[in-house]
Amino acid sequence: MSYEFFPEGVCSRRITFDIDGDKITNVRFTGGCNGNLKAISRLVDGMTVDEIENKLRGNTCGFRDTSCADQFAKAVREAYNAGAGNR
Question: Does the model's pTM come out above 0.85?
């Protein structure tokens, strides 16, 4: 199932991904640091929600207390908890 998340406090404006059970694929960021976010998308493809959360949760960007990676970790947990992967 496809999931859409609107991050807060970062440059990216939207994050979309597919979730099947606890596996995440097809991650796409709109806005933000293009090269870095493409790399994150490739690196996390096929990872579980727990793996992504363990690696990315708490990352910061500059003076901000969050980052696109941190917001993505929040997004996958939100999707999983909402049951999006089990529909």
Answer: yes
